[in-house]
Prior knowledge:
Domain Carbohydrate kinase FGGY N-terminal: 16-277
Shape: globular
EC number: 2.7.1.30
Pathway: Polyol metabolism; glycerol degradation via glycerol kinase pathway; sn-glycerol 3-phosphate from glycerol: step 1/1
Number of strands: 23
Strand order of the largest sheet: 17-18-16-15-21-22-23
Family: Belongs to the FGGY kinase family.
InterPro entries: ATPase_NBD, Carb_kinase_FGGY, Carb_kinase_FGGY_CS, FGGY_C, FGGY_N, GK5
CATH superfamily of the domain at 330-514: ATPase, nucleotide binding domain
Largest sheet: 7 strands, mixed
Amino acid sequence: MPWGQQERSAAPARCVVGVDVGSTVMKCHVYDRAATVRGYSCRKVESLYPHAGWVELDPEVLWSQFVGVIKEAIQDAGIHMKQIAGLGISTQRSTFITWHKRTGKPFHNFISWQDLRSAELVNSWNKSLLLKVINVIFTVLHFLTGNDRFLAPSILTFSTHQTSMKLSWVFKNIHEAEEAAKKNNCCFGTVDTWLLYRLTKGSVYATDYSNASATGVFEPFTKCWNPTLCKLLSIPMSIYPPVKDTSFNFGTADSEIFGVPIPIMAVVADQQSAMFGECCFHPGDVKLTMGTGGFWNVNTGEHLFASRRDLYPLIGWKIGEEVVYLTEGCVSDIGTVIKWAQDINLFTNVDETAKMAQSIVDSEGVCFVPGFQMSANDPYSCASFVGLKPSTTRNHLVRAILESVAFRNKQLYDIIVKKIHIPLQTVRADGGVSNNSFVMQMTSDLIKKKIEKPGNADMSSLGAAFLAGLASGFWTDKEQLKKLRRTETIFEPQKDLEEYKPAMDTWLQAMKRSMH
């Protein structure tokens, strides 16, 4: 039963709906004024793998699932569509599509943020003399001005997860998109933009600041699409949507879709939405999401912080005159690795994994290295097990996987402490892997910080609902939202860091072996 869902009383007069379109699942929650879940539905998001390294989503299937999951959740809540005060939409970031402006027909499937098709292009650019010259210029400018804008990773180095590189690939390889762009008939959109376009039957073409900034094509310092980057990569500037506030009246869903017009009051990127759902409203507030990937976010208030490779700046949300910035570090393949381990029968139920890890003293020197992106900056690093022995059991393999999550959390946290000169507050965790007590306790021990976990791990849905509720007047302000927040478990440091040193040193050696 989802968090906050209690025995049903009479249907509330009004509700807000939060939908989270994630990488593996799509969830819809219906919330009342107490932020109690009144209705819930969930559907699996099916990825397509047409070629090695390619990851896509079928736009029509995604649209059908989106409409279906909302209808199911409303039915589960026992309310009528006209009782919805506002719809908030949280989406996976950087997954994008392009389509014809006049016909609305896509030129290709959604290209996922996990897609690696631009690897050769990335490699070529990162070795180019032009990029080396740009690096020197930006380094000098940063030295002279001290302005972190000149550390913007979207120009200083390219990687396969950046939208810009995959967009460049589109215009080099999909002739129809290139021709349409020449006539200003090509639209670019992340998942939120496509859903807005479909919900309003083409009358609304927009995104918000959180989704735009996550593409790496939108400049968070100037708050506009980056013309320098687009010119460098031969991406036409005419393709981008207008950027709106995060908590904003985007219009209404066409009445033919749900039977009545439903106000669309917020669109937001999933990590920023989870940050808002955790009520990380103040500078120094920290959120750790462990889902498909792992994301550390720090609220930096009115200030932007960036580093060469490890951390990058984002716009958290924009509400009226308020613009809140975040700094983020990430690691790929957390939930995906655990799901893979389940698929190859290392365990039956994910709930077993914490007990399996705790049933043995250590991993007997077995290490698991996930595929890094940010810190190693190496698209060719490989996931691997190191240290396998005849005595290795499933428990050792599972423990090695879970330890690798905690070790990577420790690495990113140390980078944040070193580079973000803001006192850090309590860490708030969410995402499916935050339900794993072994990972949570080990992470708390390693970073020597208290970690709070809410009763509901689906913070992206709640954040989208909070933002929609503010825009619709369903909730008054952020102070009211903070009173609705509920903490289920608090993990506090129990072991000394030295106890983990041998295992972490071995893991670091294994990590080096997996690179390049």
